[in-house]
Design a protein that fits this description.
The protein has 2 helices and 17 strands. Helix content is 6%, strand content 51%. The radius of gyration is 16 Å and the shape is globular. The protein is mostly beta strands and 204 residues long. A hairpin with a 2-residue loop joins β5 and β6. The longest helix is centred in the N-terminal third of the chain and has 7 residues. It has a single domain, classed as Acetoacetate decarboxylase-like. The protein has a 17-stranded mixed beta sheet that branches.
Length: 204
């Protein structure tokens, strides 16, 4: 079944981390991957304007992902360590997505998810190239038994963003990635995501 989601706002905040830290949190068989010459941990926040799952409408919701980057079978891959959604996204649990319910706010100048320990404030700047961070297409959910999926994305206009104040990323600390210092932040406006969703476990 095909899932298409319209993106209203996308924020990617990343910190360099040692390769050994990535290796500790990655399941066996996965190796740390370089992203533009560094090993990274990221907080990614998305405000979805809604979409469709097959012929059924999907309500607007926000999602927050804590992730790092690995190689799986020689392919650069996003390893999702934890994923949080607002109530509109909870239907993904029916299809095996390891989502947790949280209050997530994705604004033009801030991302806040108190339950996930995330508080980022920033000042959007000029146009930028997000590099490899904007091109990853393959993901793995560690909490879902390393279920692999591929995402197609529409074009996006990316801007750099300057952190304002201290960035709080306790959620990454909680999964074993010790981040410090100001993150590199890139923001994008409207675009879309598409992926294939397997049948719900109850339907198999």
């Amino acid at each position: 079944m095909r899932l298409r989601l319209s993106v209203r706002r996308l924020v990617v905040a990343s910190w360099p981390v040692p390769a050994e830290a990535v290796r500790r949190v990655a399941p066996p068989g996965l190796e740390p991957a370089l992203v533009d010459g560094q090993h990274l941990a990221s907080v990614v926040a998305v405000r979805f304007a809604g979409g469709r799952l097959g012929h059924a409408p999907v309500l607007p919701f926000s999602q927050l992902n804590l992730r790092t980057y690995v190689e799986a079978g020689g392919v650069p891959t996003v390893l999702f360590l934890r994923s949080y959604v607002t109530p509109g996204g909870l239907a993904g649990i029916l299809f095996g997505a390891p989502f947790r319910l949280a209050r997530v706010r994705v604004r033009e100048d801030a991302v806040r998810a108190p339950g996930a320990g995330i508080d980022l404030r920033f000042r959007p700047g000029g146009a930028t190239d997000p590099g490899d961070l904007g091109r990853h297409e393959v993901g793995l959910y560690e909490a879902a038994g390393l279920r692999r999926f591929r995402v197609e994305r529409g074009p996006a206009e990316w801007r750099s963003a300057e952190p304002v104040g201290d960035a709080r990323a306790d959620g990454l600390l909680a999964v074993g990635l010790d981040v410090s210092g100001p993150p590199r932040i890139a923001v994008a406006g409207e675009t879309w995501f598409e992926t294939d969703v397997p049948p719900s476990p109850a339907a198999r």
